[in-house]
Design goal:
Blueprint lengths: L2 H19 L5 E2 L6 E4 L5 E7 L5 E6 L4 E6 L2 E2 L5 H4 E2 L3 E8 L5 E7 L3 E10 L6 E9 L2 H7 L14 E3 L11 E7 L9 E2 L2 E2 H19 L2 E5 L9 H11 L3 E8 L9 E6 L6 H16 L7 H9 L4 H21 L4 E9 L11 E8 L3 H7 L2 H28 L3
Parallel strand pairs: 1-6, 2-7, 13-16, 13-17, 17-20, 18-19
Antiparallel strand pairs: 2-3, 3-11, 4-5, 5-9, 8-9, 10-11, 12-16, 14-15, 18-20
Length: 406
Amino acid sequence: MSRIFYAIALIWVLSSAALAHDFSALARVLPDQSKITDQGRAGVRVELALTQGVPYRIFTLQDPYRMVLDFQEVDWTGLDHETFLQSRRISDVQYGAYVPGWSRMVLELGAPLAVDTADLRVDPADGSARLALNLKGTDFTAFAAGAGAPRQPGWDLPEPAVAPAKPGHSIARTLRVMLDPGHGGIDPGAEVGGTDEKTLMLTFARELREVLLRSGHYEVVMTRVDDHFVSLERRIALANRAGADIFVSLHADILSDGRAHGAAVYTLSKDASDVASLRLAERHDRGDLISGIDLSGSDDQIADVLLDMARRETRPRTTALARALADGMAQQGGPMNNKPIRTASFSVLKAADIPSVLIELGFLSSPRDFENIQDPEWRAKMAVGIFNGLEQWRQDDLVMRSLIGQ
């Protein structure tokens, strides 16, 4: 049967079981009974034990080869990566929250694999469920013919949550700022000692939002308000849909050499300003890959955006925004990176007509930065610094735009 019909059939069968057993709450994975193992010539076996049955779907993606399992919905707490993945034919596995109401598991395939059999059994006594997948090798042509995500436009596009400006004195109209906490859900971002980037950045985005709202000069939009995944393309789409005047992406990454430290502000450029910036851009884009995003056909659309005539106006405004933000944070004590203004080809910054910057609040690979970012008092200073930078930029921007008659 076809890939899409196969996925729908699985959901229908499991939904029928769910209705029979009144499955409606979040299912939990049972780590001790779940594993991925090699079966010799027979292929690979995936076994997932859950506290209850949930609807699910399966599809494959190429470039690179991946198999995606979506569940409605699973809590993966306690599932240890090394214990769970025991197959040499699966390069890696990623799992976590996806969009509201859905969880995702992504298998990175060393070579093309296809689902040979899928068997879900629900215990009639306690409702627990066991999903068993047998994967077998297939040829490149057959894999390519069946690869691709089911087309459900907008299903992973949440409405942007807009917080209106609070009453206060304003020198001009309020600006709508899109705050973009990096990563989320299945994509944790950088991880150090049980602490992950996605959680730290969501915390800081909420704190920064409050600082901006209290001024009365800003409306604030968030690409995500909880621990869910939002693709890079969707983050840009949300900013455009919300009519954002400014886009600020928030990150705290890791560089393997361990020498990077201090805050930095990045703007978009086809060519990275340095090797470290190039590595960061590649790392950020990999978040979409490991999360099971179908990127086929998207590159050309993004490239077209870069050719938009609006870029001529947006580029100098973006550069001025980056400088103002870096100055604002520096005046609050930073510490700043030795090159606080950098450029790279970050996909999340490719909106043509919205000044867009990416702030690395620090690097979790730096012990000093890691300690600072976990400190609420330090984060409060950085939030004030970003606010001060935005205030300076908005005043300068008003003057510049009045000079050119806009």
